[in-house]
Amino acid sequence: MDSPAQSARAGAGTVLNAAVVVAALGYFVDIYDLILFNIVRIPSLTAIGVSGDALVSEGLSVLNWQMVGMLLGGIVFGIVGDKLGRLHILFGSITLYSIATIANGFVHDLATYKALRFVAGLGLAGELGAGVTLVAEILPARLRGYGTMLVASVGVSGAIVGNVVAKTLDWRVAYWVGGGLGLLLLVLRIKVSESGMFQALRHTAVRRGDFLAVFRGAERFRRYLSSILIGVPIWCSNAILVALAPEFGRTLGVTGPVTAGDAVMFFYGGLVLGDLSSGFLSQVWRSRRKVVLLFVALLAAANVFYFVAGRGASPALFLGACGLLGIAGGYWAIFVTVAAEQFGTNLRATVATTVPNFVRGLVPVCTLSFQWARPHLGLVGAAAAVSALWFGLALVSAFGLRETFGVELDYVEAD
Where is the Major facilitator superfamily (MFS) profile domain (predicted)? Predict the structure, then answer.
């Protein structure tokens, strides 16, 4: 039997097909637009009249509106993907979030800013789930991990580019660049074909895209809930420790200023390395479950390092801690792949699209509980308490996951 490395070399041409390339570039633009607010939070809010402590509270509020939009958009686009096809999500989502992102560059008041981030969130919800579903259904079972690894690792680098653009250009122009890149990507999508598994299924009487079906049956719901909970620590760390890095830096006594943009860049740079590592390890170990357990534990350790090593640290060391959070949180590719592999073709897009967006949609729960605990425990204590809760839930869920490496996906979920 060929080793994973030999299989990768033999199947390189298969992995680097149009669907994988377009899904990777699509997720690149998606992440650029998704994370851009975290990068330009302070200059953009300051420009429309927000100042002082409101930069934190209103910043979290804008982020929450975006995440709620993603929560709702995940449900809508997931159902569309299973009823009409994976490509319908790809075209619809990119059009919606590109237009909304361009409009973000024209805002002059807080209410409009929140509304447009909500609309952008609706559009951003469809990209990753549709891309992973399409790639998982097109590639051979033995190469799926490599395909989704490429999609995720290329995609998260969009945050690095976003930081460079935001540092070089005005925050309004940074939004226009993101929206423009999305519209350009629509041209490439014309060359991508629909999933053969879906094409075969659409001509049958099998019920497709029934979102409520994931809640029918204890075992199916357990699979669904576990798929969500294993990913929450990644976004909890991102939304609190990374997005508020300037505030944490001052509280921990970091010896120089730390910008949110630099923290985001280091975090997502780490995510690129983490996604490549977790994807490769899942192929070498022939296990998704072991990799998820390892990386959840590593992310918990990276959270502790952030608080301990950050006290009195130099800005470089503190940013390095943000990078470690990214490396340890780099099981995002495996997380979404696991969700797609857990369910049949008639529910796969619904699950793969809603699961990551339910994770993102739980960000308001993380940030609001953090805000509630902050007056009682302080900035650091509140963050540590909220993180500990979600890490506990993630570890329990990871232990309960079924192994999905190499499973055949051409099956349906019974009613």
Answer: 19-415
Which among 213, 208, 233 is positioned nearest to 223, based on CA atoms?
A: 213
Dihedral over Cα of 142, 157, 75, 225: its sign: positive
Give dist(CA 151, CA 235) in Å, integer: 18
The DSSP output letter for 194 is P
The pTM (predicted TM-score) of the whole model is: 0.83
3-class SS shares of the chain: helix, strand, coil, % to 5 = 80, 0, 20
Q: Which residues have C-beta within 8 Å of that of residue 16, sequence separation ≥ 6?
A: 150
**Are 161 and 153 within 8 A, CB to CB?**
no
User: Which domains does the chain carry?
Assistant: 10-188+215-399 (1.20.1250.20)
Cβ–Cβ contacts within 10 Å for residue 183, how many? 15
Question: Tens digits of per-residue pLDDT, 117-175?
Answer: 999 999 988 888 888 888 888 888 878 888 888 888 888 888 888 888 988 999 999 99
**Contact between 7 and 143 (Cβ < 8 Å):** yes
What would the pLDDT profile of 11-22 be if each residue is shown by its tens digit? 445 777 778 888
Residue showing tokens 């690792």 = 153
Nearest Cα residue to 272 out of 28, 26, 19, 3 = 28
Half-sphere exposure of 168 (CA within 13 A, CB side): 8
List, for residues 30-62, the tens digit of each pLDDT value.
Answer: 889 888 888 888 899 999 988 888 888 888 889
Query: Exposed e or buried b for every residue in 192-213, given b needs 16+ CB within 10 A?
Result: bebbebbeebbeeeeebbbbeb
